[in-house]
Amino acid sequence: QDMRHFLRVCFTVCMLMFGYSSGMGQVGITGVPFLQLNPTPEEFGMAGAFTALPSSSTYAAWYNPAQLGINPGYSLSLAATTHSEWLAQFDVGIHFDNYAARFSHSFTFLGKETTLGLSFYHLFFDLGEQIQTDESGNELGRYNSYDFTHTLSFGLGTRVFRGFNISAGFSYRYIKSKLGLGGVTTNGESLKAYVKENAYDFGIYSELNITDALNISWLKPADKLYYIISKIRGGYSLKNIGDEINYTDNPIYADPLPRFAHLGFSGTLGFDFKLKNVLLNLLLWT
Fold it and tell me: Which pLDDT tens digit goes with each residue over 104-153?
């Protein structure tokens, strides 16, 4: 129990250092670092490399909102992870919840195949109960610290010409963070009970289906006995654009949001073969 309390305190101190770091040492320091977490183990295992890698995941817009302009093969997807323990092997008593929904609709607009996508993502990061003390170690009160965010994303994609699709996306993110008791004074600075901030993401995504664009007969014969898959993609996303996070009224203690600019490329090679009206995917490499 003591070790669990010690690890929780250490983690909270690190979070406070992110929040209260001075302007003299802000190289590599950001506020609300929980925004750097990946929503699921699959995305974590891929190191979040979904800027230019098409994904049908409900959480795809977290990496690039332009993903919503890609037809995922369904109309509605829901996902939820409730009260999961973070760093369970250390038993630090920190939990998180995330909920997501993704809607997609494809239609024809001005003669072009078009996909409209919307998504909502909620992430709540519960840091547990903390004890606030003064410089002499006297208890001033107890409180629960947490970070959470709501993200609403929109994406629109269309076919520009045969074999070439492009999409663009936008996300609005509301952030709230509580790491201490309001009204407590430290080093002459009065700390806020919580801070709120807005952030935005932008993204673009493009895909070129070489087989369709070149329209070479031997790549996709008329009898459709086989089909050569060859695609290249590019994507760019700009994440967490917004004002700085500050747990005091003194601007020297402000820290930037964890802003990222991602540029990605991906490709796919494959071979499909039709056998007695059954399409077999014999090879697929991405």
Answer: 999 998 888 999 999 999 999 888 888 877 777 788 778 888 999 999 99
Place of tokens 């520009």: 160
Work out the burial of residue 98: count CB atoms within 10 Å of its CB; fewer than 13 is exposed, 13-18 middle, 19 or more buried. Answer: buried
| 3-state percent breakdown (helix, strand, coil) of the chain, nearest 5 | 20, 50, 30
Position 229 scores a pLDDT of 82
Contact between 98 and 119 (Cβ < 8 Å): no
| β-strand partners of 79 | 100
**Using 50, 70 and 90 to split pLDDT, how confident is the model at 44?**
confident
The pLDDT tens digits of the residues spanning 185-230 come to: 666 677 787 889 999 999 999 999 888 888 766 666 555 677 788 8
The DSSP secondary structure of 61-74, one letter per residue, reads GGT-GGGGGS--S-
Q: Under a CB-based contact definition with an 8 Å cutoff, are residues 175 and 197 in contact?
A: yes
What DSSP string runs through 129-170? EEEEE-TT--EEEEEEEEEEEEEEEEEEEEEEETTEEEEEEE
The secondary element (H helix, E strand) that includes residue 86 is none
List the one residue out of 241, 244, 228 whose CA is nearest residue 195: 244
Q: Which two tokens stand for residue 80?
A: 């939820």
Render the burial of 99-117: b for 16+ CB within 10 Å, e for the rest: bbebbbeeeeeeeeebbbb
pTM of the predicted model over 0.70: yes
Cβ atoms of 102 and 118 within 8 Å: the answer is yes
